[in-house]
Amino acid sequence: MGVNYKRFWKKLIDDDLDLSDLHLSTGIAPSTFSKMRKNEYVSLDVLVRICEALKCQLSEIVEVELGERTELN
Asked: What CA–CA distance (Å, rounded) separates 55 from 57?
C-alpha cells in the first residue's frame, strides 16, 4: 500500500500554477515537494495546507494505492 500524488501534479498543470508560488504561499519546504515527486509519505498537515491553498479536497491531490487486503480480527 502506498500513495501517489499524480492528481496534485495534474492539478498544478491544469490550473496553470507554479510550484514556487505554492511554496511561498504555504511555507512548505521544497524538500517536501521532492518527497511528493517520489510518492513518499508527507504529513496530513502539509496536505491540508496544500488543499487550503488550492481550494480543493484531499482526494483531488492524493490517491491511496491499495495492495492486498488483510483480514482484521
From this structure: 7
> Model confidence over 25-59: pLDDT tens digits?
999 999 999 999 999 999 999 999 999 999 999 99
Rounded Cα distance between 62 and 73, Å, is 29
Given a contact cutoff of 8 angstroms between Cβ atoms, the answer to whether 28 and 50 are in contact is yes
Q: What is the model's pTM?
A: 0.85
Helix (H) or strand (E) holding 4: strand 2-4
- Nearest of 27, 28, 25, 32 to residue 53 by alpha carbon: 25
Q: Look at the block and give the residue holding cell 510518492.
A: 39
Residue 62 DSSP class: -
